[in-house]
Amino acid sequence: MIDFSLTPEQKDLQTMVRSFATRVVKPVVGLADREPDPLKRFLLYKPAYERAADLGLTFAHVPKEYGGAGIGGLDEVIMTEELSAVDPGFPMYNDLAQIPIMLFGSEEQKERWLKEPLQRIAEGKRDYICGFALSEPGGTASFDHPGPTPAGMTFIAEYQSGDYVLNGRKAWVAAGGWDMQGANQNLFVVRTDTQKGGKEGLSAIIVPRGTKGIEYSPVDKYGLKGNQTVEIVCKDAHVPAENLLAEGMGDLVVTKTFTMTGPAIAATAVGCARGAFESTLEWARMFTGASANPIFRNQVVGYMLFDIEAKIEASRYLAWKAADYLDKNGCEGGSVLMASIAKVFATETCYEAVYDCMRVMGTNSVDATNPLNKFFRDLSIMPLYDGGNMGMQRRKGWGVMLDPEYYSQMLMDNVTMKFKKEMEGRGTEF
Q1: Of 75, 90, 122, which residue sits at a domain end?
Q2: DSSP strands (E only) in 55-155
Q3: For residue 132, which of 96, 121, 273, 323 is within the disulfide window of CB 3.0 to 4.6 Å?
């Protein structure tokens, strides 16, 4: 039976996160958005981040057997929307760096790296943060290119006497740490075999904070400012070989990680658009535009607000559907397609919704102190990041649809459909 109502536990989660976002995060948003220095801006969020750790939100994704809450995809979507309705850049994306460990890590790696943050929080060190290093300055969309280096990814991890030696640059990395000395835990996607293509030559490696030979520099952005972004340069940085995972399967790390995060990014867009819509609705109920009545009574405004509501609702249900699909079928072919659809549709449709909100509000919406200003900047980035809609997401979904097992009712039928390496590499040789 299809049921769009939340369980009592999910309602409690929604209420708790909504209260946290309103009481703790919201007072920081305007101040942080106006702070010109990227590191100082990130530090303004630290008290709120530590409070989120107290509530068990920063590592809620960690499975229960490793000390976490083990929340499902749908729970994460609910939580993400509530945070994003206040600030979609709030720095709580540790799962991006830990999903590869959850999917591909050995038992020893899971025991150490999934438990470590929770142990630190229990000791009162609530600022533990994780980073995911995939993108490179020359582009990463064709990470699964079948050719050897220099095609595809060029960040090299070479095995030498019990260590992997890292050399190269990473760009657009979430989390450089609170002091620009690195996140506590970083997951790098690396090239471990330069003679093989992207389906065989890539791996992942866990890089701990304090590793020598690594430099971090902040990247300033016009939106999603709370989500810290850095560029990383590695010069002969040594990492123990025991930290390597997914050897020869780094392509699957990329594909499956962005599949797992797809519903949450869709929910981020929904929350952002919802925040803009709530501000616009309140405005339309009060602002007269020098006429006799509030503009909400104008038919054109009413129709526009109707359309905005429809776009947000449609995007929300796609995020829920994608999360539910993942929870039921795992990170397989159908989930790859469903998550890509949700991420692409929600980020692009909600961007249109926020722009429509600005059309309703007019020039007042571009005032730097108006919340629509920030929501519009934030949402304009969402189609571009976390596996860009044009560079990765549409290509991922297309790769699944090209498989002979795909049929048009597959998603409606909630079919698992195993993910195959043959679904990758499509369209990379242009």
Answers
A1: 122
A2: 130-133
A3: 96
For residues 117 and 69, is the Cβ–Cβ distance under 8 A?
no
* Cβ–Cβ under 8 Å, residues 429 and 146: yes
Same domain for 258 and 356, yes or no, is yes
Q: Say how far apart CA 191 and CA 405 lie, in whole Å.
A: 31
Domain of residue 363 covers 251-423
CB 117 within 8 A of CB 50: no
In contact, 73 and 324? CB cutoff 8 Å: yes
Give me the pLDDT at residue 429, please.
Answer: 76
Confidence of residue 430 (pLDDT cuts 50, 70, 90): low
**Cβ atoms of 421 and 250 closer than 8 Å:** no
363 with 286, same domain: the answer is: yes
Does the reported pTM lie above 0.70?
Answer: yes
For 50, phi and psi rounded to 5 degrees? -65, -35
Structure tokens at 363: 């020039």
Given this model, what pLDDT does residue 196 score? 95
pLDDT at position 258 is 95
275's enclosing H/E stretch is: helix 250-286
Pairing of strands 202-208, 244-245: antiparallel
- Cis preceding linkage at 146, omega within 30: no
**What is the domain-level CATH number for residue 168?**
2.40.110.10
Q: What is the mean pLDDT of residues 160-189?
A: 94
Residue 206: both structure tokens together: 């866990």
Q: Is 310 left (phi over 0), alpha (psi -120 to 50) or beta?
A: alpha
d(CA 418, CA 333): 5
Q: 3-state DSSP call for residue 222?
A: coil
For the chain, the 3-state helix, strand and coil shares in percent, each to the nearest 5, are 50, 15, 35
Closest CA to 329 of 269, 385, 267, 263: 263
pLDDT in tens, 84-127: 999 999 877 799 999 999 999 999 999 999 999 999 999 999 99
Length of the chain: 430
Query: What is the three-class DSSP state of 126?
Result: coil
Q: Map tokens 């929501």 to a residue.
A: 375
- The CA distance from 400 to 420, in Å, is 9
In the predicted structure, residue 1 carries a pLDDT above the cut 90: no
